[in-house]
Amino acid sequence: MAIRHPQSERTWLRATTETVRRETLRAMTECVRAFAPGRVNLIGEHTDYNGGLALPFAVRDGVTVIASASHDGRVVAEAHDLGERDSFALGDRAPASGWRAFVRGAVAELLTSEVPLPGASLEITGTLPRGSGLSSSAALAVALCLALIGIAGETPPDRVALAQICSRIENDWVGAQTGLLDQLASLFGQTDHATLIDFRSLEVRTLPLDLGEHRLVTLDSGERHSNAIGGYNQRRHECEAACRALGLRHLSEADLSAARALSAPLDRRVRHVVSENERVLATVDALERGDLVELGRLLDASHASLRDDYEVSTPAVEAAVEALRDAGALGARVIGGGFGGHVLGLMPPGAGTPEGALEVRPGPGARLLDGDGR
Ligand code: GLA
Predict the structure, then answer these.
(1) Dihedral pair phi/psi, residue 230, rounded to 5°
(2) Sheet containing 331-334: which strands, arranged edge to edge?
(3) Tell me: the pLDDT tens digits for 18-75?
């Protein structure tokens, strides 16, 4: 016999079902764990903010954020590796520095994007060395956003939109005028694949990174770098000046012969961006043909361009590149913003590595973790 409910009972039933649905969702999202990896950029350096191409991959190390909803309108965050803490009201937009700027920026940007944050307790841990050029900053921003969106019970926006939110955190709250490379690499990572990004169209394609018996390794130059200070923002301004002088929207569209008419150092900056873009395409081609000797040559050429034309190398970086070459690297180069951090080398089968070098392999992208950490 079919059960028939009077109108008032049906309304009650609907309301109860909705309450149960919400309570279940709330219980499910009371505590979430988000992980975002760092990245190694195989090639395509300082092309992102110039509307060019890059070929990064997500690494296995990154930042984990455990978030619990607190429902008291406050955010309490702990950076475990540093033994530091921060606490602020959800609506507090006061600037902060260091890791605190990322937390405050993430909360503010998500509120601006109308994510209904309930208040949160956040625990931050990481396995990436800070200031290493392996993008610990973007990993932190991405993990924070995924965790906060998770406890708000919302579905994250598409990955490009999420990368743009994370990039605003770095630009407007941390003060580093970085592009979208690191955030997209962290969000689109795929095991054993590199991510080809076209920064003009924001199209993303993954392609197999099959190195056979060769290995990619990173080596710390021993010099910490920060994108919020120093030469990085200056390079961006130089590229903007070159764009204005050439009447272009993106420097990657520049014509090398026109660039020759620019005064130094703008002519050299243009030469790097245009040639680096070509090297990304040549790298895709070399990978598709399995030509790893050519890949090594392209890494070396990228380094020479970053050193001589873009001028983002330092004596410590040169020493680390040299150490990899001495160990037999087919190619080696500075990665990330430059001015310190790690360098990357392509080692042929059987080659040893300098002390401290670590193998890097492409891992999966940013995600919420299950209870057992997968
Ligand atoms: C840093 C920035 C990126 C990119 C690289 C250089 O990692 O965060 O946006 O500009 O430098 O390729």
Answers:
(1) 75, -145
(2) 331-334, 342-347, 215-220, 358-359
(3) 555 455 455 446 899 999 999 999 999 999 999 999 999 999 999 999 999 998 999 9
Distance between CA atoms of residues 63 and 126, nearest Å: 4
Q: 27 and 89 share a domain?
A: yes
Residue 190: other Cβ atoms inside 10 A: 17
Same domain, 103 and 159: yes
Residue 283 sits in a domain whose CATH number is: 3.30.70.890
What are the Cα distances from residue 13, in Å, to 1, 25, 152, 300, 307?
Answer: 19, 18, 25, 68, 69
CATH of residue 95's domain is 3.30.230.10
Question: Looking at the domain assignment, is residue 1 inside a domain?
Answer: no
Known catalytic residue at 182: yes
**pTM of the predicted structure, to 2 decimals:** 0.91
Residue 145 belongs to some domain of the structure: yes
Q: Which of 40, 43, 46, 187 to mutate to test the pocket of ligand 1 (most atoms within 8 A of CB)?
A: 46
Is 276 a pocket residue for ligand 1 (Cβ < 6 Å)? no
DSSP output for 209-231: ---TT-EEEEEE-S----TTSTH
Q: Give residue 280's domain range.
A: 210-359
User: Among 182, 220, 300, 309, which one carries the catalytic annotation?
Assistant: 182
Same domain? For 188 and 245 the reply is no
Name residues whose C-beta falls within 8 Å of residue 163's C-beta, 6 or more positions apart in sequence.
142, 180, 183, 184, 187
pLDDT tens for each residue of 281-294? 999 999 999 999 99
Are residue 274 and residue 225 in the same domain, yes or no? yes
Encoded tokens for 20: 């149960």
Q: Which residues lie closer than 8 Å to 229 by C-beta, 6 or more apart?
A: none
Mutate to test the pocket of ligand 1, among 41, 48, 272 (most ligand atoms within 8 A of CB): 48
The atom number, within ligand 1, closest to the CA of 45 reads 12
For 197, half-sphere exposure in the C-beta direction (CA atoms, 13 angstrom radius) is 34
